[in-house]
Every structure is written in C-alpha cells, then in structure tokens.
Amino acid sequence: MSTVHSFIRHDITFPSGDSRCAGWLYLPTGVPSPPVVVLGHGLGATREMRLDAFAERFAQAGIAAVAFTYRHFGDSGGHPRQLLSIRRQLADWDAALAYVTARPDLDRTRVAVWGSSFGGGHAITVASRHPELRAAVAQCPFTDGLASALALGPVASLRMTPVLARDLAARVRGKAPVLVPIAAAPGSPALMNASDALPGYQALQPAGTSFRNEVAARVIPTIAAYRPGRAAKKVTMPILFCVSNTDSVTPPAQTLRYARTAPRGEVKRYDAGHFDFYTGETFEQLVRDQTEFLVRQLAPAAAASTP
C-alpha cells in the first residue's frame, strides 16, 4: 500500500514580468527534496477554483505542488485587471518553473506541469518549450481556438464583435478595458455559453469568495488564433491527456487528433462534461489517474528513501 503523506501549504509569491504571481506551495512531510508539479488553471480562473483539490492529492503522494494564479487575476499583481494575455500567461508559467527550480528544498531535476482547460493548452505549449521537464498533464485541454470558436457558434461569436471593437479602441486610447463575460447562458455573448458553462464555473467557487466573471474583450482574436495542440508533436516527455468525451468547450475530436501526435502521449477518456472534471466521482477518477501517472514519471518514493 502506498504511503499517504501529510503536507504543509505555504503562501508564496514569485516575480513575473513587471509584477508578481501569487500561489500556494504544498510540501509533503517526510520527503526530502521531493519532485514538484506546477498547476495552472483555465480562462479567467484562479487557483482557489479547485486547483487546491488536485494539489493536495499530489502532495499526499509525495509530490510537492505549486498552484498559482496568473497575473491580472485574483490576488496576483498586474494592471489592468482582468486582462487575459496568452503571452503573459505563458511568461507566468516560465516564472513559476524558474521559482520551483531555484528552491533548494525541491528536486529541480524532477519537475512536471499540469494544466486544465485553457491552462491545459498552456501546459502543452510549455512542455514543448521545456524539454528538461519530466512529465506533463493536460486536463480537458484547450487545443484549438478555431475548433472552440466553431463550438461556440458563429452567431454568438458575431455578437461579440461590437464589444471587441470598443475594447480595442479603449486600448489605443489608454482607457480601462471593456469587459466581456467569461461564461454566460446559452445564446448570450461570452467566451463560453454552452449550457453547462455558467453553472460549471459557479460550482468551482469556494463559499465566501467572489469570482469576476469577465475579461478584457481584446483577447477574443488571440484565443481564436491560439492552437497549442499543434505543439503536442514537439513534447518529448511523457504527457497525459485527460479528455472529456462530451466536452462543450474544447471539442474532443480535435484534441484527440493532436494527442496522437505526441511522441510519448497517453490518453484517458471520461464520460463526463468539461466542468464535471473538478468535482464528485469524476474528479476522484481523474485525480487517481493523474496521481498514478505523476508517481510513475516523477518517482517520489525514490526521494523518500534518500538518506
């Protein structure tokens, strides 16, 4: 039977660009120089929205975990607020990796990345750029902006054109961003408006916290053009794709096509929706599969037996 480790959670910050990211470091007790996995979330989400649940399980398996919030969101720095910049978020990932590899209490030679939804796409991109990583996990990953835009529907996409134009004008004039909802009811203009999107996002909010369901509209064209799945073929380390068979946000057929191009890719499929991955029995199944994969790749038991 595998050991279940206790752990201590530390509040951390690390520099990124001209500001900082806030995060949590989960350190398993009794594991000197443990391996570490870095966790990043999806569109406009913060680490409080169930990243802690995954990080806790990994720490119990002897793997340190860093869950962080991107700049411009939550309690991380960055202005203007609610700015979703793919370039800056990828820089935040690089900064998180620099942070964990600089810590003397972590094993810098055994590092993995874990991303969910939009962060799952980032995890693919980051893994393709960091061959020194030992493993990657892409959970219900955003892999193709065009496929996701088609899933949203052309009418809903066209409804966002006026607010996009206003925000681009605001950026030129140096004004505050014009915001668009991240998730909304079907038929409403938003980045996601599938029937499970709004209730799904709301279900991830811990009691007593507030989630700003909005981002600067200027991100819309960059999301449509972002196709991180194309980088899967360049990911040289083992990567686990956890795919929803009924995903309303990141269409599974395209994700599976990309996953097959990863030289050392593994695929797990689940009969559950995009937003079901974070809670209930689906979460339990996912976190078991992911923990098994990360233990296999990062070998935390070897660290525990080090004198």
Mean pLDDT score: 92
- The N- to C-terminal Cα distance equals 22 Å
Order of helices and strands: EEEHEHEHEHHHEHEHEHEHH
Q: How many beta strands in the DSSP annotation?
A: 10
Q: Please state the structural category.
A: alpha/beta
What spatial order of strands do you see in the largest sheet? Answer: 1-2-4-3-5-6-9-10
Shape designation: globular
Strand content bin = 15-25%
Roughly how much helix do the residues carry, as a percent range? 25-40%
Note poorly predicted spans: 302-307
Q: What is the count of DSSP helices, taking H or I runs of 4+ residues?
A: 11
For the sheet with most strands, the description reads: 8 strands, mixed
> What is the radius of gyration computed over CA atoms, rounded to a whole number of angstroms?
19 Å
Describe this structure in words.
The chain is α/β, with parallel strands linked by helices. The protein is 36% helix and 19% strand. It is built from 11 helices and 10 strands. α1 links the parallel β3 (36-40) and β4.
